[in-house]
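The material for today's practical consists of a large collection of protein records. Backbone structure tokens are a discrete shorthand for how the chain folds in space. An example says more than a description, so a record of this kind follows:
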Amino acid sequence: MNDMTINFNKQNYIAKYNEQTGYYEIDLQAPLIGGIYEVDIAFTDLLGQSYEDTQVVQIWAKEKIKIETNEVLMWIFDHKDFEVKDIVELSDYEINIDEETNANSIIKVLKKTTAKSQDIVMIKKNNEVVYWGIIDNIQNEDGKELYEYTLKYLTNMFNQKIILENEELIKNTGVEDFIADAITNNFINNEDTFLNLNYLEIQIKTHTKKQTTVSNVQDNIYNLHTWITNCTQNYDIVYSFSIINKKLVMAIENKEINKEFIDVNAQPISNYTEVFETDVVSKVTVLTKEEGEYNLYLLNDRTTTTDMNNKDRANGKVETVYTEKMEDANQKALDTMKSNIYNHNITFKYLDRFIPVGTPITIKTRKSLIYDTYISAIKITQNKFVEYTCGNIRIKFIDKLLKERRN
């Protein structure tokens, strides 16, 4: 008997032969996210010979019905016990979500509340959560009804210097595990129970091992928020927040999830700007405390080598950095060279569409070039267009440089 197995979206299906149509048929469970999916087909004929093939299937996701209310509401939670203090409507706002620059968000409220510095806020636009933050300060001029709030993104709740502990987790288990351990030990299960945030819960969704150490350490003390931000820039680690069973849940994960496809020519996009620079670090010298120095060189195909005499070395800048141990030198050099991929940025405005920071995207530009990148910053105002900045665009800088030299 013929046998056909279909593997779709990591699930196996047995296809049945339909004598009326002459085709093998299956009922597939469609994924929730639309996109291009690969289908692996394994077929065994009556003679016992096996065949394999791969096809692609396009899944169209049903568009969610969105009820436009134009309301922008802010929930204010007490930072000690997470109890709701107030819910207010925003009269004016400029929300900036940009952990790389730690940008402020400014919102204006026509109501006096009991909110204080360090209280947690959640902002919803059209009933969709678009921002989590903490209150930096509140200003009110001359007793007027208008109150101006300055907010920081919620990861700033960890803007604190702490003692370096359990650093081996980065290499043995994952960057995410080290961050979760630091938050748990200092903010959830601290021996000084007065400081504990009993409403906070951490979820580790991925485990990204890196041969590196915490970079911003002095006298065995470092700023946790600075390290959290560094992990976003260097290792693609992102953070998201939600409320589950009255707990504030922080998810930590590597952002390499299903990409969104954006076509700036076909979708409601305006103010498209592309900035390209060819400033490249091609050699990194890493100095260590007692074990000498380590050199890493960039090649024209964007790979690296330790061979100073390699004929395919690329031209560019030289950077000198420091790390304690020689075993961390290679990763330190690679992290430094990774700054090369931040020299090509795209900004655009998308009509009435919210895409979270850290979301990986494939973007098709005005010239029909396709790049893999991610959302690195967002600006939300009363305008229906949301402004996005892309970072980490992976393109061939060296090819660009070589072309310029030939010309």
Notes: Residues 394-407 have pLDDT under 50 and may be disordered.
